[in-house]
Here is the input.
Amino acid sequence: MTSLFTILFDGVAYGMLLFVLACGLAVTLGLMNFVNLAHGAFAMAGGYICAVLVNNSGVPFFVALPIAFVASALIGLVMEQSLYKHLYHRSPLDQVLFTIGLVFMSVTAVDYIMGSSQIFIHLPDVLQGQVNLFGIGVGRYRLMIIVICGLLTLGLQLILAKTRFGSRLRAAVDDPRAASGLGINVPQVFALTFAFGSGLAGLGGALGAEVLGLDPYFPLKFMIYFLIVVTVGGSSTITGPFLASLLLGIADVAGKYYVPKLGAFVIYTVMIVILIWKPNGLFGRTAAR
Amino acid sequence: MFIRTKTALRLAIGAALASAVAFTAAQAQDTVKIGLIVPMTGGQASTGKQLDNAVKLYMQQHGDTVAGKKIEVILKDDAALPDNTKRLAQELIVNDKVNIIAGFGVTPAALAAAPLATQAKVPEVVMVAGTSIITEKSPYIVRTSFTLPQSAAIMGDWAAKNGIKKVATLTSDYAPGNDALKFFKDHFTAGGGQIVEEVKTPLANPDFAPFLQRMKDAKPDAIFIFVPAGQGGNLMKQYAERGLDKSGIKVIGTGDVMDDDLLNGMGDAVLGAVTAHNYSAAHPSQMNKDFVAAYKKAYNARPGFVAVFGYDGMHLIYEALKKTGGKADGDSLIAAMKGMSWESPRGPISIDPETRDIVQNIYMRKVEKKDGELWNVEFETFKDVKDPGKAKK
Amino acid sequence: MTAERTVGDLALARARWGWTEIAFWLFAVASIFLFSDRYLILTEMAWLGLFALSLDLILGYAGIVSLGHAAFFGVGAYSAGLLAVHGIIKEPVLALLVAGLAAMVLGFVTSFLVIRGSELSQLMVTLGIALLLRELANKFSNITGGFDGLQGISIDPILGLFAFDLYGKTGYIYCLVVLFVLFLLARRIVNSPFGLSLRAIRNNPLRAAAIGIPVNRRLIAIYTISAFYAGIAGALFTQTTALASLDVFSFERSADLLLVLVIGGTGYLYGGLIGAVVFRILQDVFSSWTPQFWQFWIGLVLVLIVLIGRDRMYRGVLWLPRYLFQLFRKAHAKPAVSDGGAP
Here is the structure.
């Protein structure tokens, strides 16, 4: 019985991680209708920045995390302003071509600078091993992931629901034309959101290095997982991808635990079944384009 | 749309004509050409890079002329895709007229090139791929790497003799993983051990948590692991995270999981892990010390076993050329390579004259910390191990 | 296109052979003699071109996107491989057809899952299917050879007459002939009323349904045909390389395919072929230049293609002199084009 809870816990942690990694993608897709396959590259940037800071410069892990967030957000902002914003009105195929090109370039560039071997972030001792919570063995690192990601999700939800920026953002998602007609500076909303999403990805990359591994091929390896989360969750809300991440995380972990023989099939099967049942994702609406 | 069709077509024709000029190959005399086909991009890239490094290091140390012939290495990237390997090998043989093809990061790649080696009578020096059957696929294949059964079988014997009764296994669900599992299981159960849990993980697998939980629940004395290069670090980290290290469950496995290349990054979680393998960067011979120092100096990294495989592969080619006096046709080279034995950084090794496969010592190693770094320290040696995968037949 | 001309005239004009098309195929034939030391890469271009053509049929003509076209490629490849290994059908041309049909059956079955839903869910469902097939092929390693790939494939001479040789000449001519025949068929299909109705669906499914086009049936039909083409491409791959391993199903293969087609341009059949030629040449040039970092340059080319714009690039390369001349003559009259970012 206790292992059931441990598995549940692992699944939640894994799902939360997926959410932080993918929610920026969901927002860019829902908001700007932009297929940003290079999203994983921002996550990789965050991961590497964190690793270099912690391993080479001796910056404490908990300081390196916010730096990774800010740095990736800045990279995102620069990329948005210099390249992405010219492509919002291009065909999705051009966007795919462009962002895949960026992925190839980022992969090789990181390979050139950092080497192709996997790297690990040296964690503080506090985060290693397991603690016992109500008789359930719980990994400390995963506990931290859940706490951080949970807070982030709450924060995001609050920003979206309560702040002025949140309502502008929602308006822009619903109907960019009407929104700009109402005097909302849509390009600015786009830029900030893009930067914030990239920052979240960077944070996710830094957090995920321990669980998912970090090497130059990260953006390619995990592109599929991000896309799964976004498609299953639908890209018009934050809650959609969040619940989808949790569902996929738990289904994947539980599936692998209880029927390891079919482990590899679980995530794809769940995705296909959901998409056939609800082609616009669990919480998607028919896209208002 | 209509206009674009025509312009695109015209462009295509122009480009094709222009490339006709580029598509020509030159040939030099008095050189021995080696086509090195390795994965330099994709998930296996680090394998290819180590191999390339080692080959360059060897040539730097031993010069680029041997027996009056200049050695020229042509590096090609196959991204570990067998169809690429085959095309590149074929083009190297037909157009560049290479005398030897070498490298091969994964088994399918080595197998794809085998018929070409036979047809063209070009020696194929397999420097990485480790499935047993490879050397049987062509009389021109020689291997300087390893076979998984070599270390997996020894591991099984050793575990049964050293007080490990119950083992849970965690192996990747693909041919090498299944090879490792099979030979470990056969030898371990023959020695009286018991397998209490057997889990095969998907090849593309980001999270080991559920599988490790299963391991923990099975309460074995030890877990036997085999995962593809690059996943070992993650696996070990999650092993520690799950508290398996504290619950007294040992880790045993084949040495590729504890690759020296990555060992230091894995952290203290791996302390005490026992693996069976053919090479450790901590191997106490003078030759190895020099090799590690030279590699570190050149590339600022500790060499892993793949680097040694490549180093030895070049050595084999050099020595074979010395023996034939520079004659570089396939039959003479293969004849010279058969039965050759030498001192490698990993210890004494030789090429089995019958199977053209490698014969080497397998060492039992334990991860220990020395001077703030982690090392696989050897504590027991099994001498001259042949490939058990073939001995059976 | 002037207003007086009817849609029918337009369709007929489009269906007529232009000199560029004839030149293209003449050049393809000439390539047999011109590049006699590069048959292997030419062969790759041929099957990749066919594969991209199959994607063009659904993407360019019916608006169905796919990130899992490797599923059909893989089924074709393994079918051809298994037929050869077990000696069920020894003759390659017949085996090719059977492999294509196998992929076609899969295409028909999965089409029901794919044609509904938004573009994104199409992408992901197709991708999921391909990845599931890959896992299945890995699981049933007793049939497929698992990770090591299918072993012992040897392909008999084509029609019992032409054996595959080390230089790949037979293989190339074989692929080229198959490509040409299937291209003619595809050309016939897309210029038929059926093909025109597909375009109508692509442009506006609702309106197409309103004028009485059975939308779903048409989409299922073209998806199935496309799967047949992809299966043939896969079978050609296996027959010319004697290989079939798990990577035929891989995500990378599907993604590369999409790149190839988008580089060449969709919706005029030649896009896939040109894309295949360009992509392979780029890969070959870059990877012999820098085996370690060629992906960077490919990526850069992709980015530049998008930033500069495909049309403008073709124009720029082809008519550079004329373009410069025009610029020179009416320097002020030229308005700034603002859909890209680059100068």
About this structure: Chain C has two domains: 30-298, 309-343. Chain C touches chain B through 58 residues (CB under 8 Å). Residues 332-343 of chain C have pLDDT under 50 and may be disordered.
